[in-house]
Here is the input.
Amino acid sequence: MSGVLVVMEHRGGTWNRMSYEALAAGQQLATKLGVDCSAAVLGVEIEALASELASKKLEKVFTVNHDLLGTYTADGYVIALEQLVKQAKPEYVLFPHTYQVRDFAPALATRFQQVLISDVIAVHDGPVFVRQLLQGKLNADYRHTGSGPCFVSFQAGAFRSDAVEEGTAAAENFFVQLTAEELRSRPGELFRESAQTVDLSAASVIVSVGRGIGEQANLGVVEELASALGAELAASRPICDNGWLPMERQVGSSGQTVSPKLYVAVGISGAIQHLVGMKGAKSVIAINKDENAPIFEVADYGVVGDLFEIVPELTKAVQSARS
Amino acid sequence: MKIVVAIKQVPERDAPVHIAADGKWIDEGDLNYTINEPDAYALEEALQLKEKNGAGEVVVVCAGPERVQTTLREALAKGADRAIHIEADDLGSRDTLGIAQILADAIKAESPDLILTGLQSDDLGLGQTGVVLAELLDIPHATIIMQVEVAGGGLKVKRELEDGWFQHVEMSLPALLTIQSGGNKLRYATLMGIKKAKTKELKTVAAAAPGAPAIALERVYLPERQKKTEMLTGSPAEVAAKIVEKLKFEVRVI
Here is the structure.
């Protein structure tokens, strides 16, 4: 058992952008351990993806081609990857921490009596894998103590995709035994609820509101600030879940990814799922009553205090500065 | 239809974070506990499915020390029919597989049609217990579910994907679903519900001895700031003036 295997994700021939981040993580871990790094891609008509991988610094590229892997199912992926891992015998199996990986990788690890170390943000010598706990308030060091392969998934943005090293790799077709009867779920087509009419990704200033606002009737406070700044109004997930603002104004892993010049986070604690959607902002101002809120870790300017006192003052000050 | 809901008791969201002396977790002395939020949505979904069907049973299961009985009683007060407490004081020394195993042991005996749980916990956030549980019970699963429809002896569920995409998935029963927050509106326990909960069955079962864990949490610590944050202090008016200065001269949006 040796080496690192990175399981790449794509949809219909287009890479998930996090796949290359996981690949960078895999190459760096392999270098640290002095072992080889390989990659695997599953699906149908994946030759172009495989040949792209063949130009990276990898030992092997496993092409797992099967009609039943054309559309993702947890069963199909678990069965195929169980066979691949048993034959290739990697010591580490790495994934991007996508919604799809969350759906099958824990079951795959269970087949080997192992536990996926999920949503990892850094790797230290050992190797020690760093994860976030309590919605990002704490970091934790995890170590693999099992005797089988070590399964790890990486959080979006933890590694840089442009750090992937070029090179050459040998492509290898891997044939899986898989029958339609083994797939216990029937996936439908992907769809979106409604046409997105709000494109937050183009906004240069965003005022975003979270749980701290308390109730819908209080939203006026942040709406006034947004209008004073000429900003788009956005929100964290709980606000949209409650129906206080439409879903299309949600920033985060299940909503939009934004990179404005200025992001003002009002009453947002900064759960990981929110941070991945706004980490690209040039400047971040956070206003929150909890000084330990993880939003302050990514903020350039922080204010600890009552948003109902601070935001109206700020709106007034912005208005008079502009007039 | 018999539905089992696996719930977890976690520290409240605004709980004080003081690292414990052993450096492996936070001080539990000053913590208040509550139901893990995604699990509350799983319970809500189960109660609504039962109400829609007009028949069935909702059983809540929770592993942990004696204090988790409070959370189970709250679930009974909201409308669950029975509760099972898997008594274990050593959850910290069990990994996801170990915890899914003791849940599987308790749930197997119930032979449910459907198992629901939250997509992840607010404390450890590994987001795996449901999927591992389905694997141990050898039943199909789907994750990050927003809506559940029971149709023709099977299920049709709406699964959330990234960037505003969704997908319907169908499967036969028995099955396990991990539920996303926000799909339903959570109910409060009524006075009548709280009264009734006192007479409902809360069974305690022992957890099997833990095996050797496959992963270990070695230490916890406060994260280093990714950016150097400048904290602005003063009265609200002073803070507002300082922010405007930054917006003018640093961020340059005014």
